[in-house]
């Protein structure tokens, strides 16, 4: 059923994301500058990440003064991750910052909205390829206004899957974790997957599952801002999702998810924040 309030929230967010897209596209056309590292030398941030997050938070809080925010760069700056019942915008200004820095056009501006801790809307926008993915609870998932659907692939040996070594985990989880990640890659190859991809952006990996180009995706150690917006788009394909769980394993079909899951050795991650 239509919810005029949430329709309005999404409409405003789409307007802000469009503005943010112009900013990112302009920066993408310039030589790379001012790259800083955060938690490790594989965790990058640029002036553009910060400017986009500021633009989105400033614009949304002006329209919705009582809404809360969880933003990747604000958290890096010391803000706590706190998901309450209040309408909360979960923002990754550029998911795929390493791609952005290396001018690889696979990035997503991600804006998710949770109300009472449940995802209600999500936008993932790649301003370089001009692919706009969006979804609203109960209304389906769309790319540039057209409905999208997950693939119907049921077997691993017919699937193209996305995985990521997630090298950012090395610092916290150490070498045993890396051995496990490499072994998992090997297991999926031996299980006969049709192809392995790693696009360098969790959000892009997820929306590519949502549109059926990729059959499944697995990664450990993600944050809610990497996945909230894209999870909404996937949820609209009927998948339950633990937003604060720091792990993504998603697939077009339950049988593929089950086969992939049993081929892997899983990593236990602590849940995020105070959810
Ligand atoms: C990163 C990307 C990457 C994933 C990392 C994320 P960021 O997000 O999604 O694919 O492997 O875990 O941190 O830092 O570019 O926003």
UniProtKB/TrEMBL annotation:
Gene Ontology molecular-function annotations: inositol monophosphate 1-phosphatase activity; metal ion binding
Key words, A-Z: Hydrolase, Magnesium, Metal-binding
Protein name: Inositol-1-monophosphatase
Pfam name, any one: Inositol_P
Keyword Signal: no
Sequence positions that bind Mg(2+): 72, 92, 94-95, 226
The EC number(s) this enzyme carries: 3.1.3.25
GO biological process terms held by the UniProt record: inositol metabolic process; phosphatidylinositol phosphate biosynthetic process; signal transduction
Cofactor: Mg(2+)
Organism: Acrobeloides nanus
Record-linked CDD domains: IMPase (cd01639)
Family: Belongs to the inositol monophosphatase superfamily.
Lineage summary: Eukaryota, Metazoa, Ecdysozoa, Nematoda, Chromadorea
Keyword Repressor among record annotations: no
Highest taxon, organism lineage: Eukaryota
Catalytic activity: a myo-inositol phosphate + H2O = myo-inositol + phosphate
Pathway: Polyol metabolism; myo-inositol biosynthesis; myo-inositol from D-glucose 6-phosphate: step 2/2
UniProt xrefs under PROSITE patterns: IMP_1
């Amino acid at each position: 059923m239509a919810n005029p309030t949430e329709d309005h929230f999404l409409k405003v967010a789409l307007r802000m994301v469009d503005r943010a897209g112009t900013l990112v596209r302009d920066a993408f056309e310039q030589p790379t500058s001012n790259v800083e590292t955060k938690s490790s030398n594989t965790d990058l941030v640029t002036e553009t990440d910060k400017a986009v997050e500021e633009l989105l938070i400033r614009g949304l809080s002006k329209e919705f003064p009582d809404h809360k925010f969880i933003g990747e760069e604000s958290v890096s700056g010391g803000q706590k991750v706190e998901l309450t019942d209040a309408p909360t915008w979960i923002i990754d200004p550029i998911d795929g910052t390493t791609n952005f820095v290396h001018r690889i056009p696979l990035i997503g501006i991600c804006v998710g909205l949770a109300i009472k801790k449940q995802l209600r809307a999500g936008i993932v926008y790649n301003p370089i390829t001009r692919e706009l993915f969006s979804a609203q609870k109960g209304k389906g998932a769309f790319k540039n206004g057209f409905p999208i659907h997950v693939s119907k692939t049921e077997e691993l040996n017919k699937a193209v899957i996305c995985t990521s070594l997630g090298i950012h985990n090395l610092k916290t989880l150490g070498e045993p974790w890396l051995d496990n990640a490499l072994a998992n890659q090997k297991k999926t190859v031996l299980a006969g997957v049709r192809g392995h991809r790693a696009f360098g952006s969790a959000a892009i990996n997820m929306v590519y599952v949502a549109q059926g180009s990729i059959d499944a995706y697995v990664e450990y150690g993600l944050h809610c801002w990497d996945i909230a917006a894209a999870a909404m788009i996937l949820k609209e394909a009927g998948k339950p999702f633990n937003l604060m769980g720091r792990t993504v394993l998603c697939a077009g079909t339950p049988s593929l998810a089950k086969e992939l899951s049993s081929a892997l050795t899983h990593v236990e991650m602590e849940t995020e924040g105070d959810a």
